[in-house]
């Protein structure tokens, strides 16, 4: 990642609200995360009123006064819920996906929501899906529930680039005192484009043993660093992965996964939901960005402006002074 990321002392947890029904639950989740890490909380809303690009929203655009009121109410809720953390709000102009991508460069954690619309559509909205592939910091996606019990579940790629994901999951499990379930999927040789491979007798046992060995080797270093974290190892093949992921999202307190090179696992999480009566209540998901995330998403001046806003908020939260955003000021991007 970049070396010029925002104030390294205590970067904020950033949550984006847009007036949807899940907004209060989203603020509650972000406030809990900020309290857990003893970090400041920044609540943002991106108002599209002056945005000149393509706007995909439906219905009339809310007024600036409505957007500011949303921020005020959200910040008041967070302060009542967590009086022990600094809470700041800020109103941006622009495109939500681009502004939040730039904010992720200066954030500890970015918290977004899922759709609260029809069951037939993917659970993530377009902005959340975009951030899943472009965020520069860990991205938490609220899935409708925030259980305080159950294990932390981590999807293990068993590749060197997955070390950051494992490290985050182990540290999180240690922080909250939860067990860790390490889940590794292996793809059977020849299983391309959904075509079942021709498997010789005994090959399944060999493939599973190889997958178990790869998982064990990936965990060795982290279990030594975190000896107090109880780890359960789960190995599944590609045909069972969708079921295993859905079960983990329903029974765990948190899913941690890497975005990966292709983003296929993120897409699987995007469409996960509870099978009963079209419900979508699943545990939150945290996606860990891969190294070398592309940064050229908006103009350089806009990038610098968004980062400077977060830098100022971070500093004011640490020193206790009133910085930009305490009155839900606006910034044009």
From TrEMBL:
A Pfam family assignment: Usp
Highest taxon of source: Bacteria
Domain UspA, chain residue ranges per copy: 12-141
UniProt-recorded name of the protein: Universal stress protein family protein
Lineage of origin: Bacteria, Bacillati, Actinomycetota, Actinomycetes, Micromonosporales
Source organism per UniProt: Micromonospora violae
InterPro entries: Rossmann-like_a/b/a_fold, UspA
């Amino acid at each position: 990642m970049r070396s010029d990321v925002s104030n390294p002392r205590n970067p904020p947890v950033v949550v984006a609200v847009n007036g949807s029904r899940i907004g209060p639950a989203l603020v509650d989740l972000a406030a809990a995360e900020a309290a857990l890490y003893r970090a400041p909380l920044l609540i943002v809303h991106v108002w599209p009123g002056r945005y000149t690009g393509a706007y995909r929203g439906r219905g009339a655009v809310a007024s600036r006064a409505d957007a500011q009121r949303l921020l005020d109410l959200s910040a008041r809720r967070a302060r009542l819920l967590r009086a022990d953390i600094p809470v700041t709000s800020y109103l941006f102009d622009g495109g939500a996906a681009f502004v939040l991508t730039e904010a992720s460069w200066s954030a500890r954690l970015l918290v977004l929501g899922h759709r609260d619309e029809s069951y037939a559509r993917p659970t993530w909205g377009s902005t959340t899906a975009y951030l899943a592939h472009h965020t520069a910091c860990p991205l938490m996606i609220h899935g409708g529930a925030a259980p305080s019990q159950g294990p932390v579940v981590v999807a293990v790629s068993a590749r060197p680039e997955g070390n950051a994901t494992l490290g985050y999951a182990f540290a999180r499990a240690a922080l909250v005192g939860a067990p860790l379930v390490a889940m590794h999927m292996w793809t059977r040789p020849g299983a391309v484009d959904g075509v079942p491979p021709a498997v010789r007798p005994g090959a399944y046992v060999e493939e599973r043993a190889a997958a178990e060995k790869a998982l064990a080797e990936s965990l060795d270093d982290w279990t030594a660093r975190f000896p107090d974290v109880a780890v359960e190892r789960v190995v599944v093949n590609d045909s069972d992965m969708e079921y295993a992921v859905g079960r983990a999202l329903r029974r765990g307190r948190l899913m941690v996964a890497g975005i990966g090179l292709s983003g296929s696992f993120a897409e699987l999480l995007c469409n996960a939901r509870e099978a009963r009566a079209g419900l979508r209540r699943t545990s939150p998901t945290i996606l860990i960005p891969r190294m070398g995330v592309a940064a050229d998403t908006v103009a350089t001046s806009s990038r610098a402006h968004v980062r400077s806003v977060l830098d100022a908020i971070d500093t004011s939260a640490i020193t206790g002074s009133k910085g930009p955003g305490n009155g839900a000021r606006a910034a044009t991007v």
